[in-house]
Amino acid sequence: MSTVRVRIPSRLDSVRRFNGLLPGYVRLCHDKFDVLLFQTFLADLLVVIFVLVLLLNFLTLTLVGGCSEIGFDSVAGRVGRGGGCISKLLGSRGLGLGVEILDLGLAKDDPGVGRWGLVDIWVVDYEENLIETYVLWPSECNPGDARDMLQSELCNRLAGLFLVAGMDGDGRASWDVTIVIVVMIVVMVVVVAVFRFIGRVLVLDSGLAGLRDLIFDFFNARSNVIAHRQLPSLDTHALPNFPPSMLDLFEVITTSGVVLWSRSYTPVKTSVINSLISDVFIEERTQPGSEGKWFKKDSYTLKWTLATDLGLIFVAVYQSLLQLTWIDELLDQVKKLFVAKYGDKVKASNGSKIQCHFDQYFDSSVRSLEPRAGSQAPARPPNGRTATEIKDQSDHDEASIGSGDNDEWLAPPPMPGVAQFEPSSNTTLSPSSPALVAQALLQASGRRPGGRGRRSRKSAGHSGASSAHASSGEERSPGRLSAKPKRGKEMRIWGEDGSAAEAGEEQKLDYSGTGGGSTDDEHDEPVRSRPELVDQSTWGTKTSQGDFVLKDLDFEINDILKQAKESDKKGPTGLASGLAAGAMGYLRNFVGGKTLSKEDTDKAISGIMTHLLEKNVAREAAAQICDSVQTSLVGQKTGSFQSIESLVKVAMEDALRKILTPTTSLDLLREIEQVRSSEGRPYVISIVGVNGVGKSTNLSKICFFLLQNKLKVLIAACDTFRSGAVEQLRVHARNLKELSEREGGVVDLYEKGYGKDAANIAKDAVAYAASQDFDVVLIDTAGRRHNDQRLMSSLEKFAKFADPDKILMVGEALVGSDSVQQARNFNAAFGRERKLDGFIISKCDTVGDMVGALISMVFATGIPVVFLGVGQNYTDLRTLNVKWAVGLLMS
Amino acid sequence: MASLLPQWEILGLPVSLPILFITLFAVILIPVVLSQLLSSKSKDGPSSFFLLAGPRDSGKTSFLLYLQEQTLIPTQTSTTSATVKLPTGVLEQIKSEDGETSIPEDIGSRHSFHLKDTPGHPKLRSQALTSINLGPKACIGIIFMLDSAVLSSQPRLTDTVEYLYELLLVIQKQYNSLSESSASSPDPIPLLIACNKNDLFTALPSAKISILLQTELGRMKETKRKGLLNAGAGEEDDEDLDRVLGDENSDHVTWEGLREFGVEISVQSGSIKSTHAESWKSWMSSCLDA
């Protein structure tokens, strides 16, 4: 048997995959439309390039290498000369159309010259996967006919694959090149315009929600666009308002400060949440032991979760006494629900107020999570009806194909009578009050225990339709419709025989109209307009016992949560299918518009972390800063042509600036003046620090600065430990006195020798200064190791006795990873009420641009840098310039 | 057609150079033209806006929401700025006594302005300061909102004035560079000091606040002049030269004096809580008219 294997170009595969591209692009549009327009343009550009490259291929194929040139004439012409020759010839010859003949062999036992046996043709794709195979029988023809036959056959078959390219049956191109290009352009313009329009509709015009859903459904084949569903309106909803909870307050806040939704169980001061925001989110101070998971203020504990991409903060407030374990879960669930329901709106609203009817969702979440000891059912009220009624499901059950156990539930005769809900354990229902019916149905969300008696009946069926049935049906339908605008219809489907129906794909809802021989004409419009296709899964599910559970709010919530979980799993690729996602994702690395995930930023973050470490930032601080930068970046989108690295860098600069910017005024002169004028006492500054960091030197620099401003300064020598410390200060005092005589400043030294208690000396010095009318007291203290508990403990007494207005800690710029611990220990050393007021970073001139210690210390404590020591002279004292420091750190 | 014959093969496909060029040309040109067409319509960013600044807890976001929704909406500390487009109708609406919440729709749809709310936390003030731009088509006006009930306490006053000082300094700097570059000196930017919360018992009247702010600014100016150089001093972008607000030869700061330095200040009381903000609204509409 002879075989021909033909390989078709790989790009044809792309053609087939192209179908997958279109909806992907639509979703991309949807996804992207709040971004810069330029990025949308880029997305368009990519799609256009892709499509045009495809069309380019077709063009070259059709115009240049059509099927007609598929060198079969030569093949056939030489058939008689032996198979080896033929295959050689074919191999050497390029064929148009990109179709290449891999091998063409004649079977050894071929009968005679000029005759082929069976020609077995294999069409393979680029990876040599078999696409199709067929057998030709040219054996009976002469070589010429065989050629024609083979050629036309192959062309026809192959042309099937090339239909799009506009070839006619002979495989000949039928269009002129210019026409094709013009058509292409028009098509492109239309495609892009349409997609843009769709994107716009999807995002911007929420008024066209119907159209949006339609498009979504069409492309996504998602039958459930839950996020866009209408809620049952409040008044028909059976849930009690404000069920009591252990929570005190729950708020959904935008980062721009608007409270989008809140539920307050007890009045809580707004300052509680405000302090959470300013302490945790702005100043990034975590309370000891909390690891950033909770925040305590007054008697409350606050927990929160963030949706960084939308700029939302979810905060739960409860009494610290309570150990509520379910808060995290609640926050997570509420976040998912809120984002699913209002995410688009929040995005479009640009950080301002939107209307949220979130109450039921929240209540339901709380109910399902909050265990209520000794009270009613945990999640769902048990007082519903059973699904034993489902057994009444009868003949018109094409729908139940999926549910195999249906047969055994086959119907007992339905009870004739007025449609009625039997009163169940604690709900009384009457058929004449549609709203109540709706209520009951909503409540009956759980299993529905109970017997045959508890049934809703609407028996228009087998016993013959009485007018009463008909009218009851009519009465209820509009009621339902109005009570639950959209989903109501789907949720209450009752069999004609009174069962909760498993409505199937092809089943109509309107049993009252079709059952028992009564004709449609007997029913009025609302009833007749109801028939629609119902997918069982859209309105309820079956439990393992075969109980049918109606869909309600809890279902919707579950659905949203399920979807959120799935999309979590899928990640961002879920947004755009297959090829499009891959290509776009890759390209976005370069052109921007990429939504960042944690993995994306990992590399850049670790790079910048190394950079920080090189700048002498303590590892602990660097790691934490990087962490917070990373969390703030996740979910963000890169700008046009912005690499992740540059985005991370910008974010890092912002973070560093935020850390270094002081929250209080650092104007020392102003404060001194203030204290002097209002209280008349001297302003007390004390200086602490580890050994040898330059406490005395910086003290004299500050003193010089104060003297230049014509203040009267008393230096108190409270280093009673190190020999020479007092003498050193005496020299400084003498120098300063000489320097400042002309300026008009007065400086004096208060000393009591060595060995005495520093706290007492400090106290005496302040009293002395007050009596002598000094403006400022500068207290020098002994250097102490920050991890020496014995030495550090004396600081608390010192702070109490001297009661300084400012306690400044001197830290070396040279210090490395120890800086964090130094700052923390000194900050904690002054007791519960007293903290450090500022840092003086000395020896900045010796480190060049490695000013990491600045960041480490400020980050560890949140205390600002007041002064920098930049040299050996009295004048070498500077205030911190945040821009300068950030510039050095990022250089 | 001869020219269209393939010259090369790429990946087994014959490629024709002219077709390649034509296609590439089309590919590059179409989206550019298209996006030009589309973006010209939709690119309606906040090229000119009112800036809403001020220390925290002064009611900036509340004012924004009050203008937007005409009701009081609870707020928390902001951490990001928000720009909202508002119809000018919201400013005129109060004038008609009887039609309470009726915004004249024809006006509302045609004329609108942007209002940029910025966080007031000290660490986030740079967001407001960097968005000040005196160039053409930039800030229409700046609203500096403060809490008139807390100014009697010194720390809060210092905080408020420090922010105001920084703000005025930024304006002054920009104004100086602007007037250097152009021959005629540009118009000063209007700045409203909106003294919010005057419904509270401890609130100071606007005249008192005005004096308080001016003297406090003067004091701050004095200490800043005496203060230390900052660490970046002496390097290329030396900011120290511009540290002094207003006239360098005097330690006093007056609103009239600041007019030369690019800002025209008016101080007006109001209260969002008691929906008493007409004076601010009329100030805004006068800015828009100008």
Automatic annotation (TrEMBL), chain A:
<comment type="similarity">
    <text>Belongs to the GTP-binding SRP family.</text>
</comment>
<feature type="compositionally biased region" description="Basic residues">
    <location>
        <begin position="449"/>
        <end position="460"/>
    </location>
</feature>
<dbReference type="InterPro" id="IPR007222">
    <property type="entry name" value="Sig_recog_particle_rcpt_asu_N"/>
</dbReference>
<dbReference type="InterPro" id="IPR000897">
    <property type="entry name" value="SRP54_GTPase_dom"/>
</dbReference>
<keyword id="KW-0547">Nucleotide-binding</keyword>
<feature type="compositionally biased region" description="Basic and acidic residues">
    <location>
        <begin position="388"/>
        <end position="399"/>
    </location>
</feature>
<dbReference type="GO" id="GO:0005047">
    <property type="term" value="F:signal recognition particle binding"/>
</dbReference>
<feature type="transmembrane region" description="Helical">
    <location>
        <begin position="41"/>
        <end position="64"/>
    </location>
</feature>
<dbReference type="GO" id="GO:0006886">
    <property type="term" value="P:intracellular protein transport"/>
</dbReference>
<feature type="compositionally biased region" description="Low complexity">
    <location>
        <begin position="461"/>
        <end position="471"/>
    </location>
</feature>
<comment type="subunit">
    <text>Heterodimer of an alpha and a beta chain.</text>
</comment>
<dbReference type="Pfam" id="PF04086">
    <property type="entry name" value="SRP-alpha_N"/>
</dbReference>
<dbReference type="InterPro" id="IPR042101">
    <property type="entry name" value="SRP54_N_sf"/>
</dbReference>
<feature type="transmembrane region" description="Helical">
    <location>
        <begin position="177"/>
        <end position="198"/>
    </location>
</feature>
<feature type="region of interest" description="Disordered">
    <location>
        <begin position="444"/>
        <end position="540"/>
    </location>
</feature>
<feature type="transmembrane region" description="Helical">
    <location>
        <begin position="850"/>
        <end position="870"/>
    </location>
</feature>
<keyword id="KW-0472">Membrane</keyword>
<dbReference type="InterPro" id="IPR011012">
    <property type="entry name" value="Longin-like_dom_sf"/>
</dbReference>
<feature type="compositionally biased region" description="Low complexity">
    <location>
        <begin position="423"/>
        <end position="432"/>
    </location>
</feature>
<dbReference type="Pfam" id="PF02881">
    <property type="entry name" value="SRP54_N"/>
</dbReference>
<keyword id="KW-0342">GTP-binding</keyword>
<keyword id="KW-0812">Transmembrane</keyword>
Automatic annotation (TrEMBL), chain B:
<dbReference type="Pfam" id="PF09439">
    <property type="entry name" value="SRPRB"/>
</dbReference>
<keyword id="KW-0675">Receptor</keyword>
<protein>
    <recommendedName>
        <fullName>Signal recognition particle receptor subunit beta</fullName>
    </recommendedName>
</protein>
<dbReference type="GO" id="GO:0005789">
    <property type="term" value="C:endoplasmic reticulum membrane"/>
</dbReference>
<dbReference type="GO" id="GO:0005525">
    <property type="term" value="F:GTP binding"/>
</dbReference>
<keyword id="KW-0342">GTP-binding</keyword>
<keyword id="KW-0256">Endoplasmic reticulum</keyword>
<comment type="similarity">
    <text>Belongs to the SRP receptor beta subunit family.</text>
</comment>
<keyword id="KW-0812">Transmembrane</keyword>
<feature type="transmembrane region" description="Helical">
    <location>
        <begin position="12"/>
        <end position="34"/>
    </location>
</feature>
<keyword id="KW-1133">Transmembrane helix</keyword>
<dbReference type="InterPro" id="IPR019009">
    <property type="entry name" value="SRP_receptor_beta_su"/>
</dbReference>
<dbReference type="InterPro" id="IPR027417">
    <property type="entry name" value="P-loop_NTPase"/>
</dbReference>
<keyword id="KW-0547">Nucleotide-binding</keyword>
<keyword id="KW-0472">Membrane</keyword>
